[in-house]
Amino acid sequence: MPGLTRREALLAAAGFIAAGARGEENVAAVSFGGGAALAALPGKDPLIQRAFRPPNFETPLAELVPLYTRNAVFFVRYHLPVIPQVDAASWRLEVGGPSAQRPFALSLRELKGSFPRVSLAAVNQCSGNRRGLFSPRVPGVQWANGAMGNALWAGVRLRDVLHKAGVAADALEVVFNGADTAVLPGTPDFVKSLPIDRALDENTLIAFEMNGESLPHWNGAPARLIVPGWTGTYWVKHLTDIRIQPAAFDGFWMKSAYRIPTGAFSTARFVSQETPETTPITEMLVNSLITSPAPAARLRRGEAAHVAGKAWDSGSGISVVEVSIDGRQSWREATLGRDLGRFAWREFQLPLDTSKAGPLEIAVRARSRNGATQPEALTFNAAGYHDNRVQAVRVEVS
Amino acid sequence: MRLRARRPGLALAALAAVLAAATFNNAPQAAGGAPRATAAEVTALRDGEGRDLTVGRCIICHSVEYIPANAPAMDRAAWQKTIQKMKDRFGAPITDQEAKQILDYLAANYSGKSG
User: Which of A69, A183, A280, B38 sits in a 20 to 30 Å window from A167, CA-based?
Assistant: First the structure.
């Protein structure tokens, strides 16, 4: 393996061999938590390696503490294994399709120079974040909590680009392809579509910067789609082609994958892709993450401690975050941190009473400004999406 | 428009070998800093009848840690469904006879579904 010292290779091998050995006795122990090793992609810090190829790497909990998730630790998610290093100087974005009146192509320099620059803070969360916490378990990348992050994205509005191409009256969907491809001719390319109204929303961007730097390779260089409030599957990386079309796009990744039972969740509808049985996942649900204390932390009696974490939704914004330490009998309101905008996550914090020794269960629930609250029960769906149950961490005070 | 752009077809055996290492060959190198563990494709699947065939077919498109990682969600029926999906939806070059061998191996070694 190029770039790997002997010691590193041995360490990496040991991690996997250890995981396999544990599996001999208990298969369930293999995949979750202890089964995944920390490893670094080139240009990234070590992340939780859920899969090597295609690369699927999760952000460790401690790295979700800062208000903006660093580029070097931002999660990486791919479906297809052929991921070219796109040359920003020769990159071209093609904009066309049957409902485009004036198809054109542009360079990165033209993209940056032709349209007003926009930046916004937004959570990017994989549809399957927390799939590994599902009960019963479901197949897929077994993410824990870190298939998400919050970043400041800068780019141009997609709608400005679409208007330059001329959006015909019959436009129904806008279709996006990136430079990543499959190995086999029979594997569907990763192509996604958005309803025309969402594509024309002022907050939908083509971004070329993340947290003030050029987009990292593993997060979609040189330009990617930003669809604030919607799950990461729509945030197409290494964007190469945009098509405006009068018909529903019928690719595998729309018609067969990333679907939820119709009517099961109160999220935006994607009418042109809906069937009586299933519909595409769209918006994120209101949710929260406890970053402190860490699960199973040991606190000293009387020590100054606090409960802290992040809460987010699909763009209404967070109104209240509540904390319970008495088995969810009573709830206290946490203090909310700086508002970075309605698509970003919001920090919350509440001092923790450590005066009594013993086990402590800390539960947190967030409510959005549209009134939605995190539920206690999972709405089971076979693909393992939308786990926004109230979470709890158990700690020990001694 | 290149919505369906594909890599040219190559002999599968060569393809698997090349692609197992190819993913990161084009990747940017980490700029300076301390040496760090590098992501690696090192996964040991359990020894058993059908293991080599399973590894050989699966790694054409993906590394095999998906297999132990998904075991808690899988039983024979779920593996059957997955193999069929790989054949029908993803174009995996697996004959019916090979599919049976792969199913037997995965069902025997990576079925961890409870209840």
Answer: A280
Q: What is the DSSP letter of A67?
A: S
Give the closest-approach CA distance of B97 to chain A in angstroms. Answer: 20
**Is A41–B111 a contact, with Cβ atoms under 8 angstroms apart?**
no
Q: How far is B30 from chain A (nearest CA, A)?
A: 4
B28, B40, B70 ranked by CB distance to A217: nearest: B28
Say if CB A49 and CB B38 are below 8 A apart: no
| Dihedral pair phi/psi, residue B16, rounded to 5° | -60, -45
Residue A81 in any domain: the answer is no
Q: How many CA atoms lie within 13 A of A290 on its CB side?
A: 26
A353 in the same domain as A219: no
Q: Identify the CA nearest to A180 among candidates B91, B5, B86.
A: B5
CA-CA distances (angstroms) from residue A227 to A24, A192, A194, A219, B8? 43, 12, 9, 14, 33
Domains and CATH numbers, chain B: 49-115 (1.10.760.10)
Q: Could you give the CA distance from residue A34 to residue A46 in angstroms, rounded to a whole number? A: 15
Q: Which of A45, A62, A79 is the last residue of a domain?
A: A62
pTM: 0.87
Do A17 and B44 lie within an 8 Å CB cutoff? Answer: yes
- The backbone torsions φ and ψ at residue A336, rounded to the nearest 5 degrees and listed phi first, read -90, 145
CATH code of residue A315 = 2.60.40.650
Does residue A128 sit in the same domain as residue A198?
yes
Q: Buried b vs exposed e over B10-46: b needs ≥16 C-beta within 10 Å?
A: eeeeebbeebeeebbeebeebeeeeeebbbbbbbbbe
Mutate to test the interface with B, among A137, A245, A253 (most CBs of B within 10 A): A137
Q: Is residue A188 part of a domain?
A: yes
Does residue A103 sit in the same domain as residue A222? yes
Other beta carbons within 10 angstroms of residue A151's beta carbon come to: 24
Angstrom CA distances, A169 to A59, A104, A165, stand at 42, 19, 13
Do residues A212 and A267 both lie within one domain? yes
Alpha-carbon dihedral B113, B62, A15, A34, rounded to 10 degrees: -40
Nearest C-alpha in A relative to B4: A189
My answer on whether A145 and A237 are in the same domain is yes
Q: What is the pLDDT of residues A26-69, one digit of tens each?
A: 222 233 334 578 999 999 999 999 999 999 999 999 999 999 99
Total domain count for chain A? 3
The predicted complex's ipTM stands at 0.86
What is the span of the domain harbouring residue A34?
6-62
Which regions of chain A are under pLDDT 50? 1-34
Asked if A72 is an interface residue toward chain B (Cβ–Cβ < 8 A), one would say: no
Element (H, E) at B22: helix B12-22
- Residue tagged 């400004």 (tokens): A369
Which of A218, A248, A280 is the endpoint of a domain?
A280
